[in-house]
Amino acid sequence: MLLLAGVAAAGALLAALQGEPAAAVREDIGPLDAARVVALLRAHDPRRAVSGRISAVTLHERELEVLLDHGARRWPETTSRVHLQRNAATLTMSVHVPPNPFGRWLNVRARLVQTGGLPALESLRIGALPIPAWLGERIALRLIERAELLGELRLTADVVQQVRFAPQQLQVVYAWRDDSARRMMEALLPAAEQGRLRVYAERLAELAARERPAWEVPMTRLLMPMFALARERTAAGNDAAAENRAAIVVLALFANGRGLPSVLPAARDGPRPRPLRLLLAGRDDFPRHFLVSAALVVESTGALAQAVGLAK
After folding, report:
1. Residue range of the domain that includes 211
2. Within 13 A of 53's CA, how many CA atoms are on the CB side?
3. Residue 46, pLDDT score
4. Is 65 left (phi over 0), alpha (psi -120 to 50) or beta?
5. d(Cα 297, Cα 116) in Å, to the nearest integer?
6. Which of these, 113, 115, 114, lies nearest to 123 by C-alpha position?
7. How many domains are contained in the chain?
8. What is the per-residue pLDDT for 118?
9. Can you tell me the mean pLDDT for 118-130?
């Protein structure tokens, strides 16, 4: 029985893993793609929406793939593709796995069908291995939990009323609620990241207060002590990349006149940095462009960061 179990497990791995990705790697996200997605997000910003009003957003297949590619950055070497049809959609995701004798790629293909509300899973294949839809739903829920995406899932279930599929386009019918903006922003940031950003926002408020009564300061006067804090926290055992990312993001928001509460509403109860005009080579536009570009690089996929930078 042990031998049979081993053979069955090996057979399942052989069927699930494959030598090539089913979703081919594509790095051709351009400035027009980024500009279109940014325009869509701005047009449907929950912070400016009327609570309870029914709205709809239509995404073309290309726009949806740009968003999926960006979202897949949570997992290194992961690509995804989507094919939209009438009343159905096929989502393909390829994940690169460590070296093994069975295959280097885990290819997942899911077919979703339109319902009166959120789509339902009709079929699922992992490589050449078919998975029952009921089991696929359980696996998906477990993966969502492990990826800390339950907040996004619950928000989607509360806000989205129906998803409609048509050839090469998808329509989402939704209605924001009073707390949707807060829930969306907080769901995008894990609790640990929220705490980290608040630490740097508090330090920035201290640094800005020290510059009184000046209203213009060289960018380096804030940049250097913020990165000094990142070094201190890294030496204390925190992740170096995460600490430096937080410092850059907080500085980028500040330089562009946006405080941390603009992306993390829960931070409204924290100290607010005194407004300052940052200068680089005597100009105030250089710090804005430099810090925004830096934030895009550390928080985005390389292709998307380049496209948004070019569009800006």
Report:
1. 189-311
2. 8
3. 79
4. alpha
5. 40
6. 113
7. 2
8. 93
9. 92
